[in-house]
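Same chain as my last thread, 337 residues:
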Amino acid sequence: MRRITELLFLLVLGNFCQGKAFSQSLFTDSVRPYYQSAPEMMNLRYYFSRKYTEFQLAKDQPIYEPNSGLNMGLGFTYQKFTLNIAVPWGFLNPNRQTDWNGNLDLQAHTYTEKWNFDLFGQLYNGYSVPSIDPRGGLTLRRDVEVRKFGANVEHVFFGDKISLAAAKDQSQIQLKSAISPMAGFGIYRVRISGDSIFTPLSENANYSQGDFFQIGPTAGVLGTLVFGKGFFLTGAFSSSLNLGFSQADQQADTQNWDWQLGYLFRGFAGYNHPRFSINVNYVVKNLNLPTLSDLDPSVQTGNYRLNFIYKIQPGPKLSKTYTKYNPVNILSRLFQK
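reply #2:
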């Protein structure tokens, strides 16, 4: 970790020596009426983040919190490809259960000119829930597991005027405020399990596993406010109407089909300069799941992050090699065949 940090420092120091000439020329290249792209720039990222997937068995019941923590890591964005690697370091999470099985939280948020893609893959092991004891405290549930997979795809109607990529990974710069409607669909698969995960709210609702499936259309709006020569506020909100299926303990007599509402919110705020950016963002997906007997469960997946970004222009040799092995370009070549 120390060597990586030193390498990033040297890259930053070297690029400062290039002076202001490149920063000024950046605004004259590939300028669009509302936002501009800078594909020749590599964004180096140092960030803090926390991902989570929490759930409730009913609206009047306590929230089950995962054994996740605050992550610190490094990443980069170059030629439309982004890679981030972060670790929940112990000194940042003194209260985290270290002897429990680990979690795997995969979230991919890719935003093109006309389409937004949000992919979710969560495998969480171990949860804590507020104790029913009047004295308070937490009940540790090492046995509880959540498996959640899903995708949300939306069309941005005025994508030539507003860039969600500018707000998310700063690969573009929004120059003017804009707004656009969105429409699409989402599909999700969820499993919640444990030794006795569904607490006995009634005699008919004490299950050890719940399986859920949902699919439905989405509609929403995307807007960004640009002010103060580089400051921005961007938000995207989508509501969904989902047809859902639920089943407990793989028993046919517990199956239920139901319509449920949900939402996806993405919020971004910060400062974006041709050379650097400081910003915060928050993505949250809410799923109200079909009822199971007396249970009215819901699952919420989120990711909030603080980013410190410095932008460099790699040399021609690195750029040529990277272009050849860039996963985005490899996939493009495969689909063209």
